[in-house]
Amino acid sequence: MQKNQKTALVKVSLLILFIGVSIYLVRFSPARQYFTTEQLGLILEAAGFWAPLLFVFIYAAGVCLFIPGTLLTALGAAIFGPYWGFVYVWIAAMIGASLAFLIGRYLGRDFAASLVGDRLKRFDDAIERNGFATVLYLRLVYFPFTPMNFGMGLTKVRFRDYVAGTGLGIMVGTFIFTFFIGTIKDVWAGGRWAELLSWKVFLSIALFILSFFIPKLLKKARGPGTTQII
């Protein structure tokens, strides 16, 4: 038992170290100059045919390194357009979210389990039973993406429920954001200013504004008497 506790402590220490180094690398180190939309955009433009694959790799790694997801999503929409941008962003976000979950699960779950008391155990068991619904709801209400990826790895939620809930939960928000950014970028780059009054632009703006109300609509739909899933 003592050996298991030591192993769990070593693992969680590595997790904390990993997160700390990632934040330092992206936010405070000299390397942060390469994690801008301008620099990443130049790298992807130079990649040519391999740009989509490189973007997926950069995005997935960026999720694990705490690079803001909105920055990477906007980059994908600006370079690949509203439709292919959505496809590449969604795939990359799923890979990154899965990797972060597995890192959290492998390095932090044992330590988290050792701290779970009776009250937290009921919460942990509830997440295991309602994993898909819990993850789906939290994704739809825009719970911070990267912290949730690692945090869910510390719980008993099944990996398949986490993947399914994440895949469905981020789909709407990802499409709205990429469609909005990609559409505006296409009009801007083409210099076709008359298209600013097109249905496509108005639709993208309407969807973008609507996305801010999704969390409130979901909470209202649940109502005070609705069974809590988390």
TrEMBL record:
Pfam families tied to this protein: VTT_dom
Places the protein is found: Cell membrane
InterPro entries to which the protein is assigned, alphabetical: TMEM64, VTT_dom
Membrane spanning stretches: 12-29, 49-75, 87-107, 131-150, 162-184, 196-214
One GO CC term, this protein: plasma membrane
Keyword Ribosomal protein: no
Name by which UniProt lists this protein: TVP38/TMEM64 family membrane protein
